[in-house]
């Protein structure tokens, strides 16, 4: 058995915190130095970025190309051309360099060829941040999209550029968050700390600052601060993120550019699987998806996992980045108790209407124990989840007779490709079911029956011995 306390820690995190915890995310884009390349940009790389600005002093135009050397004269020119950045205090705009020491340019005075939409950044932010927003963003009858509205260019310079803890002032009711894009130029310090509901994410961009575009997005109600820049210049573009109504459906993006280690539960999960007493012998962790995906429709296998949202994409991508086997599978809403006798299946009982919600989980566990506890020296009783081998369209079947549980199980075996898996450690409750199988039976009494499934993320955790070597 896995260690119960780490287990319940994860259970609490996933169930209560995970979707709430998706308050921020970030990623990076490398610069392709080869300017002869035909394609302008890919999801993970960009051509060098040009920034043009008009000096507010004399309106003279300058250009800077990133990655930039922090010693370049154009970098100091840019820093010098900035005016002192103010910030909102109450309903006033104030300058107080103890609180914020930074330079800024307004959008009237600069332009660049960097556009966050080119790298799928907005789609990724939508996938991670919008689902946790509840109905405001998830009303299916509206197709809501994020747009990024360029707001300022900021320069935080050595030895004392910083911004103390604050919450951004939304400029209107459609603004839901902020996006910060850090242009490549070497600096030290300048960590961006983002806090929400007692959790904190530390975006430490210094080590890759010389060569990589790094970005972070967070909800408007997050407190955040920028630690002192001790060396170089930290040059950023900030955008206001607005949620707007769109005509037409959302376009699915196959691109994944979020770094899973910027996601809030990453640390806990990583340290948990790093412990010997957590699932020492290995096993399977199960997470019922917390959002609805119509997982038994014809295009489900094409849409998932890339279309996962909120807590689901967080769990999927974290375990995938830790290189464990992760899959999305349909799981029947009933478990099966098998009885083996002399190595043969002699009886099977559907354990119907199992309360799959976590409030009933302990009840489930008890029931399992009771079933197992019915000691029998000759007969072996086992309980398993019926897990579909893959996502596919709902199946319509007919069978000669489906009157007993065993007949029902044989029918499922025949028509709904699955493998029974014992001892899945379920960590979330089942919420959204779809029809998996419709069958007509021509027995004494012709009848029509239905079987339902839930989409679940299954993660194979190798035994400790093996995990150590990975
Ligand atoms: O540069 C950053 O990381 C954040 C900037 C910021 O908080 C702001 O401009 O309000
Ligand atoms: Fe801010």
TrEMBL record:
**Domain named Fe2OG dioxygenase: which ranges?**
147-243
User: Record keywords: Cell cycle included?
Assistant: no
- Gene3D superfamilies associated with the record: q2cbj1_9rhob like domain
Q: Does the keyword Coiled coil apply?
A: no
Give GO MF terms, alphabetically.
Answer: metal ion binding; oxidoreductase activity
One Pfam family from the UniProt entry? 2OG-FeII_Oxy_3
Q: Which UniProt keywords apply?
A: Iron, Metal-binding, Oxidoreductase
Family membership noted in the UniProt record: Belongs to the iron/ascorbate-dependent oxidoreductase family.
Recorded protein name is Fe2OG dioxygenase domain-containing protein
Provenance organism? Talaromyces amestolkiae
**Organism classification:** Eukaryota, Fungi, Dikarya, Ascomycota, Pezizomycotina
């Amino acid at each position: 058995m896995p260690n119960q306390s780490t287990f319940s820690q994860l259970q609490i995190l996933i169930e209560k915190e995970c979707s709430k915890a998706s308050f921020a995310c970030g990623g990076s884009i490398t610069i392709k130095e080869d300017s002869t390349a035909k394609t302008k940009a890919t999801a993970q790389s960009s051509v060098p970025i040009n920034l043009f600005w008009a000096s507010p002093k004399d309106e003279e135009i300058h250009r800077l190309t990133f990655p930039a050397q922090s010693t370049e004269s154009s970098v100091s020119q840019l820093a010098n051309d900035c005016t002192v950045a103010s910030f909102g205090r109450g309903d006033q705009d104030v300058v107080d360099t103890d609180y914020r020491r930074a330079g800024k340019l307004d959008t009237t005075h600069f332009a660049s060829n960097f556009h966050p939409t080119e790298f799928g950044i907005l789609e990724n932010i939508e996938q991670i941040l919008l689902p946790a927003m509840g109905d405001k963003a998830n009303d299916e009858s509206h197709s809501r999209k994020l747009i990024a509205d360029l707001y300022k260019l900021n320069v935080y310079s050595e030895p004392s550029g910083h911004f103390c803890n604050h919450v951004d002032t939304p400029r209107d009711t459609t603004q839901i968050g902020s996006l910060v894009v850090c242009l490549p130029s070497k600096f030290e310090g300048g960590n961006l700390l983002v806090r929400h509901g007692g959790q904190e994410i530390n975006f430490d961009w210094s080590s890759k600052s010389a060569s990589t575009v790094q970005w972070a997005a967070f909800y408007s109600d997050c407190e955040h601060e920028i630690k002192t820049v001790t060396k170089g210049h930290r040059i950023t573009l900030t955008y206001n993120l607005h949620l707007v109504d769109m005509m037409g459906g959302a376009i699915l993006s196959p691109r994944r550019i979020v770094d899973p280690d910027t996601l809030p539960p990453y640390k806990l999960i990583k340290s948990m699987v790093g412990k010997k007493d957590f699932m020492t012998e290995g096993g399977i962790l199960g997470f019922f998806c917390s959002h609805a995906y119509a997982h038994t429709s014809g295009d489900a296998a094409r849409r998932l996992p890339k279309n996962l949202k909120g807590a689901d994409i967080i769990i999927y991508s974290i375990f995938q980045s830790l290189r464990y086997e992760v899959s999305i599978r349909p799981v029947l809403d009933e478990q099966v108790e098998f009885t083996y006798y002399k190595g043969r299946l002699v009886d099977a009982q559907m354990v119907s209407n199992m309360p799959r919600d976590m409030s009933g989980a302990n009840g489930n566990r008890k029931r399992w124990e009771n079933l197992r506890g019915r000691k029998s020296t000759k007969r072996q009783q086992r309980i398993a989840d019926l897990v579909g081998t893959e996502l596919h369209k709902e199946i319509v079947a007919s069978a000669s007779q489906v009157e007993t549980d065993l007949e029902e199980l044989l029918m499922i075996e025949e028509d709904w490709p699955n493998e029974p898996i014992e001892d899945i450690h379920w960590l979330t409750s089942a919420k959204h079911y779809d029809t998996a199988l419709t069958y007509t039976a021509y027995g004494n009494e012709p009848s029509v029956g239905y079987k339902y499934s839930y989409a679940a993320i299954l993660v194979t955790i190798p035994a400790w011995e093996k995990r150590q070597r990975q």
